[in-house]
Amino acid sequence: MNYLLVSLKNYLNSLKANYNKIIDLPGEDEKYRVDVQYIGNSLYYRPVIGILTHPGDGASGRLNKDKNASYIAASYVKFIESAGARVIPLIYNEPQEILYEKLNLVNGVLLTGGWKKNGLYYEVVEGIFKRVLERNDTGDPFPLFAICLGFELLCKVISKDADILKKFSAHNHASTLQFSKPIDIQGTVFQRFSPELLQKLTTHCLVMQLHKWGVSPERFCQNSALCSFFRVLTTCVDEDNKEYVSTVQARDYPITAFQWHPEKNAFEWGYSTIPHSEDAVQVTQHVANYFISEARKSLNRPRTRDVLDNLIYNYIPTYCGKAGRGYDEVYIFSQPESNNSSLLLTE
Questions:
Q1: Which of 54, 211, 261, 286 is catalytic?
Q2: Could you tell me what percent of the chain has a pLDDT over 90?
Q3: To which H or E segment does residue 156 belong?
Q4: How far is the C-alpha of 290 from the C-alpha of 108, rounded, in Å?
Q5: At 150, is the secondary structure helix, strand, or coil?
């Protein structure tokens, strides 16, 4: 009963920005009074998320040897869809004017895992990050989630330190999360987690690690640009017992970055180490729900036909799970040498 009351109290407190009336929540010894502001129908219930593609085919060339190919693991698409949103692929090597025009069709962006940390891919990530900040600065809420490689690239972009990342032994194992102290989870990705699940995150291996690079808490705090932009929510320790930053949230923007994989628990089966317990799947769902709840605040209302013409449903995923490792499904995009692709927009 105490868990239920605390969870309900936390939930009602999280609504403070959305209502303007007093709600009384009876407790065993007291009433919790929550003063919140009602926002009516301003939320957008048809959100679309742009997912940036990554170089390659997601299978070391076994599926597509085109040097201009890029891919999105289907688990990221399912992750977004599970929370009630749709996906438009942002093909990293298509003409920039087309790529950035697609940002006008979405209500948030997801940067995925991968390996590419330089060249055109880095430049595109930097350009998207800049535009995310600009849109938020105009008063239009526009969330950005960055997972694994996405986390690493944001650290490089924000810190302006090409050597900010250091090697860690965190490739292919599940781990706990350790929360920063003191921690206030209200307004963060963890605000929807029950007290019981929050506790389990610190004692049970419910999150998947699949990376070789990271940032130590000390190095993170030593970089003034990083520690002024982000606050650290959690850390993890690698297999050598070295600590690294694992979840950060921007202080002034709806940007959250993860040095772990929230999408894998429910949607990937290529590694036996991925946790698939009910608690682990709840982690995936809560993280997805939080992201899309932020995307629903977006003011962007693109034309329906433009969205439909560019949705990922126009592409067919490829099953690659028989290899017994890596991704189960990927969407592969081939970009012509001449870069003559075009954005499908109605007149």
A1: 261
A2: 78
A3: helix 149-159
A4: 12
A5: helix
Helix (H, G, I), strand (E, B) or coil at 242: coil
- Residue 330 CA to residue 328 CA, distance in Å, equals 7
Cβ contact 212:166 at 8 Å: no
Domains of the chain with CATH codes:
2-38 (no CATH), 48-334 (3.40.50.880)
Q: Are 309 and 345 in contact (CB under 8 A)?
A: yes
Annotated catalytic residue: which of 148, 155, 236, 320? Answer: 148
The pLDDT of residue 63 is: 87
pLDDT tens-digit series, residues 330-346: 999 987 654 444 565 55
Nearest to 209 by CA among 173, 257, 237, 258: 173
205 is catalytic: no
Question: Catalytic residue at 148?
Answer: yes
Place of tokens 């430049």: 123
Inter-residue contact 242 to 214 (CB < 8 Å): no
